């Protein structure tokens, strides 16, 4: 007969897991109420996806949701507070303990049991895997928002809700706009800060700002969330007006400006989720000059998946349903280009010159713009 080994020797995290169990009972669960417990421990974009699908999730699975997110996403959670029974804020250390200690059995999908509500924990994050299917024509295999539908076990046509902008946030946006001296519909907010992707050199952003000013726009730099590691060497962008925007004021502030230019990150996803209809958005896709771009339904033929990953950061691939009827344009910008070429690209972006080779648009298998060719089934998702 084999010897029974104590549980702690099987699980080196046994003591930690016991502590987490007690925390769940004391702090997270609602006595007498069956509820789903969704953990959001990644970036703003992933948390926004979960929040956007919260209503569809309850309609599909029943019961309400207890959202557990990190403290830095509290303002985002408040924009969807009406979709949750309860919102619990956790420190980064506590969230890591729950997500990185084998505390969660990803095969379990049931109320009152904590679920990591992110496709990254299903192996879709860093491998070619399912993301490789984005390169194929027609529906494109699966988009990032499809991956969230898969993780949350939702229908493929489940819809996302836009965030709710409070009256207080709208008033604060007005106040910040007046203080900054914006002109309604004739201002552009530049968002160079990025925690998620390669940043573009200062010379590029200066060229964007200078050309916009030549065109008669008031130009601002969003300083919200700025830290030494995620901004430019010089912040704000030289020649622009700095404005420090809390997350819940970004959408109403851009509405007042008329246009935003941003890199690929969670904040840009929240902007898209907000229903991009009252202002223009330009998204910048970082790439290398070593990668050859092709406007193909198969994407471009990158030598490695990592080099080709800029394409799948495009909303045409990541969340095509949000692009429908949206005044969005996207440009693929090589961050390692010469200063002269970066200055030229800055002017291209400022002018929204979609005839330039840097302008990006996904094409369907028949050569038509993907969004136009597939508008019928995309419209069922918005």
Quick rundown:
The protein has helices spanning 7-10, 14-28, 44-61, 74-78, 92-100, 144-151, 167-180, 202-214, 250-257, 266-273, 315-318, 320-323, 339-351, 370-373, 375-379, and strands at residues 35-40, 64-70, 86-90, 114-116, 187-191, 218-222, 241-243, 258-263, 280-287, 328-334, 359-360. The protein has 382 residues and is of the alpha/beta class.
Descriptive overview:
There is one protein chain. This protein is α/β, with parallel strands linked by helices and 382 residues long. It has 15 helices and eleven strands. The chain has helices at residues 7-10, 14-28, 44-61, 74-78, 92-100, 144-151, 167-180, 202-214, 250-257, 266-273, 315-318, 320-323, 339-351, 370-373, 375-379; strands spanning 35-40, 64-70, 86-90, 114-116, 187-191, 218-222, 241-243, 258-263, 280-287, 328-334, 359-360. The strands form two sheets. It has a seven-stranded mixed beta sheet. Strand 2 (64-70), helix 4 (74-78) and strand 3 form a beta-alpha-beta unit. Helix 3 (44-61) packs across helix 10 (266-273), helix 7 crosses helix 9 (250-257) and helix 8 packs across helix 13. The protein starts with 6 loop residues before the first helix and ends with a helix. The relative contact order is 0.11. Residues 1-8 and 294-308 have low confidence and may be disordered.
